[in-house]
Amino acid sequence: MSDLKYKRLLLKLSGESLMGSQKFGIAANMLQHYAHQIRELHDMGAEIAVVIGGGNIFRGIQAEGSGIETVTGDYMGMLATVINGLALQSALESIGVQTRLMTALKMENVAEP
User: Fold this and answer.
1) Tens-digit pLDDT profile for residues 29-87
2) What pTM does this model have?
3) CATH of region 8-94
4) Is 40 helix (H, G, I), strand (E, B) or coil?
5) Distance of alpha carbon 75 from alpha carbon 98, whole angstroms
6) Is there a smaller number of Cβ atoms within 10 Å at the N or the C end of the chain?
7) Where along the chain do its domains lie?
8) What angle do CA 87, 92, 95 make, to 5 degrees?
């Protein structure tokens, strides 16, 4: 185990970074890459919080001029972040890293409040 300067880490992942070379969605190789990097930090003794974006699925700018109200577009963006969070959670748990997915949106069957 390596000596870490900080034991608690906050990692911000752009949703767009999950696309890899794709134009949309989640590239499996990017998801696995991030999961293995996070596991490496975890194995070094770090406690890690990940904030993940949803720009690979939905961007608020897409709602402008499409008839989608701003608040609805905001909720769509939040749902995109939950989708990415579920994908990362699955990738991490498949390699033995215990996770918790949290969101401000009420969806108890999917994530903790």
Assistant:
1) 999 999 999 999 999 999 999 999 999 998 877 777 788 888 888 889 999 999 999 99
2) 0.90
3) 3.40.1160.10
4) helix
5) 27
6) N
7) 8-94
8) 130
